[in-house]
Write a structure and sequence with these properties.
This protein has 2 helices and 11 strands, in the order H-E-E-E-E-E-E-H-E-E-E-E-E. The chain is mainly β and 214 residues long. It is globular.
């Protein structure tokens, strides 16, 4: 009974504290325009098979995207993404022995210190909130076609906490790293790499770093 009462009290308090835009009001959608990555609410991780025992995961923290967004005709939107290879993060547990992140970022057999980018060429609508973004992925100085499967999660014309328009997307892609000359230890380390992205985007003019946004 005590637990039930506590949970009811907590639920009521949260309901009372919820801003109107989060409590069931009609939400207006974000307008067309130029949007950029909100790094506080975005992540890009990648993974591959590791000796057939598990998948190895890592991520990039330095990802910047520019989206020319047209909500009425999303297929006419355009996307440009740049990734800093030096921002690779593996959570290697023994950094005092080896700076494994730096090794991955700079070694010739890995990312070779070369900028990574993706530029859209076309967008195909596949469902009410899904699409495919065909583009060119540059990595290790080589540029090859790649396809992003994208889900549009929604938008807000005025985020109740951050006081700005926001867009939300999930995306994934599967590539063969050997096509970009990244053929270290294939096949014991998988050639097929899955990329997963979760991102929120804000207008290009919005000043990031608002301490009150969550």
């Amino acid at each position: 009974m005590l637990l039930r009462n506590t949970l009811c009290t907590l639920a009521c308090a949260m309901a009372l504290a919820t801003p109107p835009a989060l409590a069931g009001e009609t939400v207006k959608v974000a307008p067309a325009g130029t949007y950029k990555t909100d790094p506080a609410h975005s992540t890009l991780q990648w993974s591959f098979d590791h000796f057939g025992l598990s998948r190895y995961f890592a991520r990039f923290s330095g990802v910047e995207a520019k989206l020319e967004w047209n909500p009425s005709e999303p297929e006419t939107s355009t996307l440009e993404v740049t990734i800093d290879p030096m921002s690779v993060r593996t959570d290697y547990p023994w950094p005092e022995i080896e700076d494994f992140d730096a090794k991955l970022a700079t070694a010739p057999q890995f990312f070779a210190g070369q900028p990574i980018s993706f530029v859209s060429k076309s967008i195909r609508i596949t469902g009410e909130k899904t699409g495919k973004v065909d583009g060119m992925l540059t990595m290790r100085g080589q540029t090859k076609p790649a396809i992003l499967d994208v889900s549009f999660n929604g938008s807000l014309a005025h985020h109740p906490l951050e006081k700005t328009a926001k867009l939300g997307f999930s995306a994934s892609a599967t590539i063969l790293r050997s096509q970009w000359g990244f053929d270290f230890a294939i096949p014991v380390l998988g050639d097929e790499v899955r990329i997963d992205v979760e991102t929120q985007m804000v207008p290009a003019s919005f000043a990031l770093g608002n301490p009150h946004g969550t």
